[in-house]
Amino acid sequence: MIEIDKSITGKTKLIGLIGNPVEHSISPQLHNTISRHLGREMTYVPFRVEKDDLKDAVKGLKALNFTGFNVTVPFKKEVMKYIDENSKEALLMGAVNTVKNIRGKLYGYNTDGEGFSRAFKEATGTAFRDKKIALLGAGGAARAIAVKLSLEGADSIAVINRTVSRAEDLCELVNNNIRRVAKPYGWDDDTAESVFADSDIIINATSLGMHPDVENYPYVKPIKFRKDQIVYDIIYNPARTRFLQEAERHGCVAVNGLGMLFYQGIYAYEIWTGIKLKEDFLKELFLEFSGLLGVRQKAKLSSKS
Ligand code: ATR
């Protein structure tokens, strides 16, 4: 017997992903699983777009009445000029990763910061208010995180980066537009040592230690962690970077970036549909999702701040 495939009909809502490359993305699995689970007729499709075609691609998604789309590397910044209205956070973060199409008007959001914030709180039970934070890196990921940390009331943010001018630019952005809490440090600054010692939370937002360069470490020498410090690495492959292993060895709560990846997607889904996904469902989905990537998180996604 032939079974008729009813997964796509004339009423199916469409969500896209534009980037280059997109072949490795697990976002289609994530979003399509949620839609199937909720019984929604919505399908998520990735598109590899060439640099010169970005404008046409955005116009095309709009013309085809897509409900929304995700934007990934290398277009998160450039896409902003084709969006009708970018959120305040996206403007501060200088990047858009989620777009919603409302009656032909495109609204841009950045869910990376929110994804990071929620993942961090779920895994550690700790919020950023009044915390002293050391942030390694000053690239796109660090920018989204620094903006979020300052918006959520961090007491201080020490931005430590190899290229000190980038750390200075990021601190200026935070201090001039959100709150005066950020201070730049160079990679081999002597004072960086005492910054680590003074911090409640230490975050790696560089790519150092990521597969296949797993021996790499995001600082000039191993950091002397204290066991009451919380250590976060935005990398999820490998699940335990050298940086996280070192933190664990000192008894710290050490969390990888899988939750950030997961929750930035969850927020995007909530933006497109207006649905608030249930906690129980999210916990179960997260477990499946980690299995899909072969990544396990030690700290539990359970306690709430
Ligand atoms: P992303 O958008 O993923 O954050 P990015 O903007 O290229 O990517 O930023 C990468 C971050 O990792 C930067 O902070 C970068 O430091 P520089 O600003 O000095 O380039 C850091 N990084 C990457 N490779 C590095 C290396 N080999 N040593 C030190 N820092 C490195």
In short:
This protein is an alpha/beta fold and 305 residues long.
Separation, N- and C-terminal Cα atoms:
53 Å
Total helices: the number is 10
* Percent strand: 15-25%
Instruction: Please state the CA-atom Rg, rounded to the nearest Å.
Output: 20 Å
- CATH superfamily name of the largest domain? NAD(P)-binding Rossmann-like Domain
Gross morphology is globular
CATH fold label of the largest domain: Rossmann fold
Unreliable stretches (pLDDT < 50, length at least 5) are 299-305
What profile does the largest beta sheet have?
A: 6 strands, mixed
The CATH architecture of the largest domain comes to 3-Layer(aba) Sandwich
Which helices and strands, and how do they pair?
Elements: E1 13-19, H1 27-38, E2 42-48, H2 54-63, E3 68-71, E4 85-86, H3 88-93, E5 98-102, E6 105-109, H4 112-124, E7 132-136, H5 140-151, E8 156-161, H6 164-177, E9 182-186, H7 191-198, E10 201-204, E11 230-233, H8 242-249, E12 253-255, H9 258-273, H10 279-293
Parallel strand pairs: 1-2, 1-3, 4-6, 7-8, 7-10, 8-9, 10-11, 11-12
Antiparallel strand pairs: 3-5, 5-6
Helix pairs in contact: 4-5, 4-9
Bound molecules: 2'-monophosphoadenosine-5'-diphosphate (ATR).
